[in-house]
Amino acid sequence: MFLSELKQEEKTAFLELASLIAKIDHKQTIYEDSILNKYKKEMEIDHYKIQGLEMEDILKVFKSERSKNIVLAEILTLIFSDGVFHESERESLQLIKKHFGFKPSEFSSYKDWIDKIRELSSHEEYQTIG
């Protein structure tokens, strides 16, 4: 939603992070593939090739609070896209939250927001199908 606001270096870092998170449970789903492609289009970096950077190096790129908020919201969307919250995803989220300096209450409100967006999305898809 807000990925286009990121600086160019942040866009590629975000795509690296999203790719890493999508594969963290060793099962990249079609839902995750779809979201990764959506991210590329939104950021206008369709032809970017994943370099395989380390998470610590990726997270250092995001400096502003706004960028960190955008990253967390979009990563949560990706993580919950397949409806399963794996232990490896939880650990990755803990690392991101710690690195970005988020409080647990902030994370909870983000998760609630993502759940509401997913619910609206599912309802909208149902309406167009039915």
TrEMBL record:
<protein>
    <recommendedName>
        <fullName>Co-chaperone DjlA N-terminal domain-containing protein</fullName>
    </recommendedName>
</protein>
<dbReference type="InterPro" id="IPR029024">
    <property type="entry name" value="TerB-like"/>
</dbReference>
